[in-house]
Amino acid sequence: xxxxxxxxxxxxxxxxxxxxxxxxxxxxxxxxxxxxxxxxxxxxxxxxxxxxxxxxxxxxxxxxxxxxxxxxxxxxxxxxxxxxxxxxxxxxxxxxxxxxxxxxxxxxxxxxxxxxxxxxxxxxxxxxxxxxxxxxxxxxxxxxxxxxxxxxxxxxxxxxxxxxxxxxxxxxxxxxxxxxxxxxxxxxxxxxxxxxxxxxxxxxxxxxxxxxxxxxxxxxxxxxxxxxxxxx
Length: 232
Hints:
- By secondary structure, the chain is mainly alpha-helical.
- It has one domain.
- Helix content is about 80%, strand content about 0%.
- It contains 9 helices and no strands.
- Helix 4 runs antiparallel to helix 7 and helix 4 packs across helix 9.
- The chain is globular and about 60 Å long.
- The termini are far apart.
- The model has no long low-confidence stretch (mean pLDDT about 90).
């Protein structure tokens, strides 16, 4: 029962974080700095992950939805799924947002790679290590560094090019029987596609790409000077 209590507490905490994301959804500030971009990527990733995962489970469970939360195994599976789907959303949205800055500015690929890495690093380092991921998030950060080395930035701005990972993660990790997922996959992915389109449309109305790049260059230069000072 103790494990169940912890698992349920984690579920409630995650829903709370996603609801916080909704506040930002209704009060969107312009995005002019790397840290504002981190906040955008983090909150929207939580929003998309939470609404698609819980929406899928609720649709499949029907009237049994509430009673499922009395099942310890189900709740633990749901808590694992929420983090893995969020992390996939985070990586995809970071790639898209960095690619958008690339498409609107004269930023070099190196600058865009480092900006994308900063988005994922900051978002994950701001999280407490959850019980479902005792290993933390270093594996995610490492995999993302590998991903951005191979990312064709110019093609990541169009449509859903950047978002395949999160679409696949939703189907893979949702605590639904595999035999049902076969029929559900396309419908479930379309629900996430729709939410990502809303995020992209909103992002395009908020981003000040030149200001973000200018602030990022200043931040990187400051960091380089500090490294040089420590090395000397």
